[in-house]
Amino acid sequence: MELQINEKVIEGLTLEYKLKRNIKCFSCDIQDRNFNLYIFTYEFKDEKDFLETFKTINNSIAFDFQRTLIKEIERWNLYFIAFVNSEVSEQAKNAFEQDKYATRKIVYDGVSNTTIEGIKGVIYKKLFNLELNSREPEQKIMSGETVQTLSTFLTNTEHQKLKIMNKTITNMTKKKSIAENYLKEILNEQKNI
Questions:
Q1: Closest CA to 80 of 101, 51, 110, 52
Q2: Which residue from 62, 81, 82, 184 lies 20 to 30 Å from 165 (Cα-Cα)?
């Protein structure tokens, strides 16, 4: 999945220039599913700028872009990631992230001078990377943010099944290795005859 900057989408938004120059739209073609994901990002100066501006941007995304999408899966899978240079209060974060109108919303605060590659890294990490390694701790701390593993969400029964599957895979790998070694020995003996 490769993220591409989609300039056409931004051109279609009816935002004033000072807002338009800081907004980016990344699109990702989900080829095997035949639809696109759209992720909008914006870098805000501080909490005040964030609170005064995010609804205007979100409304433009809804009115100027979301309503033009034909595929329902595309209309309901729009993301708006806010990068805020200073710290943002929990109340402001919750107001943004719990607002279900038009987009799914995520706040990253205390970040500044975000590069395209940095933004792409956050998008991949937040939306596309799913940790499935059950041998890792239930949670690990990464850059001050809690990243949850799959086992965090499993019920006890599901967790036990996952452990059994991991043991089975490990045993199968060991048995395969033993079988390969046995075959090598037989082949070597055949060569010596």
A1: 101
A2: 184
